Amino acid sequence: MTTKLNITLGQHSEQGRKEENQDFHGALIPDEPQLKNKGIAIAIADGVSSCIAGREAAETCVGSFLSDYYSTPDSWTTKTSAHKILTAINSWLYSKGQRHEDDPRHHSQGMITTFSALVLKSTTGHIFHVGDSRVYRMQDNNLECLTTDHRRWVGEKDYLNRAMGIDIHLEIDYRRTRLEAGDIYVLTTDGVHDFISDKEIARLVSTNNDPDQAAKSIVQFSLDHGSTDNITCQVLRINTLPVQTANEAHQELTRLPFPPDLEPGMILDGYRILREIHASNRTQVYKAEDVDTGQLVVIKTPSVNFEDEATYIESFMREEWVGKRIHNSRVLTIYDKDRPRQFLYYVTEYINGQTLRDWMNQHSKPDIKDVRLLVEQIATGLRAFHRLEMLHQDLKPENLMLDASGKVRIIDFGSTKIAGIAEIYSPIERLDLLGTRNYTAPEYLLSQPGSNRSDIFSLGTITYELLTGKLPYGNSLENADNPRTVAKLTYQTSTQYNPMIPLWMDRTLRKAVHPDPQQRYGTLSEFVHDLSHPNPEFMKDQKRPLLERDPTEFWRLLAVAMVFTNLVLIYFLVR
What's the CATH code of the domain at 310? Predict the structure, then answer.
């Protein structure tokens, strides 16, 4: 039977012997689909008592984290979401704390607080920590502290050397932990763990089966044993994890049947089929018309060849998931469902145009300025993927469309890798579909993980082909499947195919398609900039001897010169 992530949570806080409770805590257990896509978030903070706004700092940290985390894209990893949010919160605390210090009415040392959070997503726990609050895990009555106190001792006193709002630069401890049903997690402020031992915390948790009662007992025990600080404790027990069998997952994926063979004139859920645009062994693409509105659309259907393959169906459904989350004028628009569907398919905008491959066949020698404009548009669309922590992984001329006005769209998301989805457990094996060999980054061919630099390799290859009609490594990538063959890849200088290409631009292309991802551009903006603006480093390169700059080109030119010289000598000898 399919189960969901389910916990029992207990929380309690007391101001103790202090005039004000500057601790703050909270948790958020969302409904589906956020429970699956984002998980459960628990957070605790301890405002620094020497700060006049310690309570505000703690409350801001916890409240903002819990609300903003669920506003981040589902495609982001938990780590990316949390880091971006905490960095923004820290900047706000720091800037507001500085204003407090400038106010002579306040003796504030800024808005400073400790912060610890636990995010339970699928079958993994994600811990984020700064300061001296703590996160414990209890398994089989053994209590383990999963965080490190950020304290520095000076003489006989200790001080926080890391906290939220203490510095404009924030360093956050991050840790992943595998979740198990029955695990218990305990979050405490120093009003607890500075006054009672870990052994006592474990005993109190063990003797109180109810997490809420356990949290209250720990707080009361700390107070009874001399705690002079605010006292806060959260206790949660993991009841069930989101476990699904392969059969259950298959039943869920096959809830909608595959459409029948579609012919012109047929009506599918309110769409009239006009003609088939494209068909492959994986999908069929049709031009259709919305019967109600007359709008032209494209319908993409899965191939019946894979009707019983859950892995393929999940991949097909992921294409729609990706398209609905990217809103960019250079990426194909996938429409939301506005009427019930009886079959598995999705609907996209209709582009009256041609693929980039068709355009390239018609423009064998395009102007460099036109190529730059095309590449800038593709980079804009690709950047939309990267901002959402998605890798396209199959960028090639066939997956790029130009409309009648020359505007580019990225049209295929079948190989897209989504970082946030990769964190969610699935009994169905997820396919990492490779793109077309000659456009695929070498690291993929070596079964290594990709990055945004992998997509830059593909874009660099397309740019090279637009300018030269050739590929930077010829067909060598077709056989590059081990480190030895990849190391032998030899870049073909673009100027030998198109003498109009400046040397500095050739160096830009060479860097974009370098076999080693660490030697490539790190961002799309750098690559696009260098295509139009001579990089000073590449300009220096032009002053070096050709033998150093490009040994292959040097020996090629030398060979040509020797052949020409020999022909001249033969001519005179014959005379």
Answer: 3.30.200.20
- Residue 252 CA, chain-centre distance (Å), reads 26
List the domain range (segments joined by +) for residue 503.
353-543
CA torsion angle 254 421 69 391 (round to 10):
-130
pLDDT in tens, 300-321: 999 888 887 888 888 888 899 9
Return the half-sphere exposure (C-beta side, CA atoms, 13 A cut-off) of residue 112.
Answer: 20
Comparing C-alpha atoms, which of 11, 108, 121 is closest to residue 57?
108
Model's pTM, two decimal places?
0.85
Pairing verdict, β 184-188 and 134-139: antiparallel
Between 310-325 and 246-253, two packed helices, what is the crossing angle to 10 degrees?
Answer: 60
Q: Are 221 and 259 in contact (CB under 8 A)?
A: no
Q: Residues of 298-308 as b/e, b for ≥16 C-beta within 10 angstroms?
A: bbbbbbeebee
Both structure tokens of 11? 């929380």
List the CATH number of the domain containing 76. Answer: 3.60.40.10
Residues of the chain with pLDDT under 70: 1-2, 50-52, 99-109, 154-156, 244-250, 252-253, 427-435, 541-557, 575
